[in-house]
Amino acid sequence: MTINRLTRRLFGASVAAMALMGSYxxxxxxxxxxxxxxxxxxxxxxxxxxxxxxxxxxxxxFEGTGAGLAIVEQSQPGDWDVMVIDTVDxxxxxxxxxxxxxxxxxxxxxxxFPEVLMxxxxxxxxxxxxxxxxxxxxxxxxxKSKVEAADMxxxxxxxxxxxxxxIAIYDYYLPVMGLAAMAIGKKTSExxxxxxxxxxxxxxxxxxxxxxxxxxxxxxxxLATGEAxxxxxxxxxxxxxxxxxxxDLDFSxxxxxxxxxxxxxxxxxxxxxxDNALKFIQYIMSPEGQAxxxxxxxxxxxxASKAAALDADQKKILRFDxxxxxxxxxxxxxxxxxxxxxxxxxxxxxxxxGQ
Amino acid sequence: MSQASTSRxxxxxVTPALLWTLVFFVVPFVAMAVMSxxxxxxxxxxxxxxxxxxxxxxxxxxxxxxxxxxxxxALSVILAYPFAWIxxxxxxxRWQRLALMLAVLPFWTSYVVRSYSWLLVLxxxxxxxxxxxxxxxxxxPVQIANTRAATVxxxxxxxVMLLTLTIFANxxxxxxxxxxxxxDLGASGFQxxxxxxxxxxxxxxxxxxxxxxxxxxxxxxTPQILGGNNELLMPQLIMMQIGRRGDFASxxxxxxxxxxxxxxxxxxxxxxxxxxRA
Lengths: 355, 278
Fold this sequence. Notes:
Largest interface: A-B, 42 and 46 residues
Helix content of chain A: 40-55%
Structural class of chain A: alpha/beta
Radius of gyration of chain B: 23 Å
Order of helices and strands of chain A: HEHEHEHEHHEEEEHHEHEHEEHHEHHEH
Order of helices and strands of chain B: HHHHHHHHHHHH
Strand content of chain B: under 5%
CATH class of the largest domain in chain A: Alpha Beta
Radius of gyration of chain A: 20 Å
Oligomer: heterodimer
């Protein structure tokens, strides 16, 4: 055991053990222990699966791949069965030897929008370790009664003084820096350290026009309460879930494109309930599971499967039929190297601090 | 009772406290110290600490934290003292219990809920702006939410309650004879307060102020919700290291630096941090 691992264990034992104790205590051999994002905690998603299979799903929510992987490192092998993870980060789990290959022949891979499968991030040595379950866009979310629609069709809005003081920025450096890069004609997949000074200029102009940087909940609150009219980095994930109460909330895919986010499900190599884990993944990828996940109470997003059993209203809100065109213009989530990732985060920190 | 058995009883009495401190403070502290020095790729390095001192954005987070915390502590003391005074000396004895309960009532709500409530109150369409605009005091709403001012308001609302309790307890311990003696010797009410009451209640103020400082400087929720992330404070910077990147070395180093600042604050006011029966 390395020193690093030992200290993390100590840290985990003293800090996280108590927090995790509750979920472990409730678990049993027949249960499924899932490390998830908040959209998977919705009873409307889990209960039909539990009723149909008799498998109880114990969920623990986390935000951010780093925090999720830290929970895994602080746990015993076999404690967790499945994990939700950014598709671009599946590699990080594979490199840590955490994930098992998924049986593609038992999963509806053919029904998934090909653009969101992202094999370069989820398939290694010919084996699939993550399957995309949901996706969407970090783009421009807005209140269409308060802005001019034409302005939302270009990423020029990122630095447009016209909306000064009416803009909120989603506080996550990777997608928003991806948008900033696209605004100056860079490809998100080709970003290097040399691009950072130009991106910094865009970020500084954005910050000067912005009222606040907001997390997921605050983003929804800002648009819903009228505190902000435009959310940079927003998309269907922030507007769709509250569209019925706020029909003026919408999102655009500008002519320069938008950043495509996608989340995947992975199965742990040390899972003691691999059969249950596979059943759960199959359920999530089924037409019914996809529809429920897409319209989860925490946030809505596009189902990865074209066969998702969404009704007409839900499809309209998610702009389901426009996806082929949107996907053509979208660019992948930035997937920087460890070193570039750190520099991007530091640049984001400097932007917030006004430096 | 022999000296040996007294010693055994003494050790038996303090052992639970020592074990508690060992398990829940010393072990995590050592783990964090080691982690702050441990590189992802293996080996030890001071890189995480060097990063703090070399990166102006990180340094700025500490300055922001200190500025906000000192403002909050000062405002909380200024507001809590008269409040505690009124409770201790003006509110009739039989109403004091009820008044104290009402004073701490906001403690009963969730910290997160309270912060989001403040966000709605301070928003452009919130109660504060609407009232000021309707009264004609403002021509248009001003931005209060998502600013440092909102963070300070959220903090002060919480810590005034805490300080009121510590100062109230201190004031109630004061013998009325001190005031009577000062008056007999010709001191005015103001002179009595400045030269007698205030020095005697200073320990209570300092205990409350120190608690406010420690709790505010390490708080993540309030600046995150109310500050709108228009500037970063140390707890937000620490969380940022963990979120996506899982950079525990940086997070640990920043946490220990924050802890060093708290230690310095303790040393600065240690002489007053003792409760003496007046």
